[in-house]
Amino acid sequence: MNDSKPNHAPSDLVGQTVVVIGGSAGIGLATARRVRAEGGQVVLTGRDPDRLRQAALELQPTGAAAFDATDTDRLEQFFRDLTDPVDHVVLTAGSPFYMPLADMDLAEARRHFGERLALNLAVALFSRDKVRPGGTLLFIGGTGARRPGVGLTVASTLTAALPALTANLALELAPIRVNLLAAGFVDTPLSASLLGDRLEARREELRAALPIRRVVGPQDVAALATHIMVNDALTGATYDIDGGQQLLPH
Fold it and tell me: For 16-36, what is the mean pLDDT?
């Protein structure tokens, strides 16, 4: 008698629908690909119509909408227009804000801080009647700004705020589950745009220093995201994925 388990067990995402906000590139696109590979359906949004069109050609989503997710009126309309319930919503839209206090543009800092918190709250508010009980809202945050540093004032404050927001929403939205992925450096087009010609040097530095001896990619984050979707014991928590980056000295 062979008691060994099959190499590929059926995924619990079969027959489920996942909305990926920011699903045309980076972590969002990788997550949408993973959902489709595991038998789920996706609804994609993205700010760039051309990138969204390319993602849609590849993934054949049940729906796609091009808009800036920080436009909360448009975001509300998007959720209102969903005709069927969904199982999970993943929010990957947004970018970090790095600026030393000496160079601080207060209006820009206020805009970024307010938009980031408002976006997470808006997704929770507008999706609450669309997500099936036991489904997931999954936010993306970071780990890098947990250590104080010059230029990290706004980023560090948001890094501290998002776990508290996630835990409170998990209580308010129950039985919908709410969780936060906190990533370190992830090798995405956004990282490339932020680092420019310093990208390869940063990759080499991380390959040498990280305990996993490689750079974390968007597919790594996607794998954790889909696990959190299907594990219905998980809510209100923050899950770090940084390849051990936080263990390194300054």
Answer: 96
Return the structure tokens found at 120.
Answer: 């997470």
Three-class SS state of 136:
strand
Considering Cα of 210, then 212, then 213, then 216, what sign does the dihedral take? negative
Quick: pLDDT tens for 89-132: 999 977 777 888 888 888 888 888 888 899 999 999 999 999 99
Separation of alpha carbons 37 and 69, rounded Å: 26
Nearest Cα neighbor of 118 from 56, 72, 77 is 72
Structure tokens at 13: 């995402």
Alpha carbon of 22 to those of 27, 29, 92, 110, 152: distances in Å?
Answer: 8, 8, 5, 22, 24
Q: Half-sphere exposure of 214 toward its Cβ, with a 13 Å CA cutoff? A: 4
Name residue 182's beta-bridge partners: 141, 240
Sign (positive or negative) of CA dihedral 206, 207, 209, 211: positive
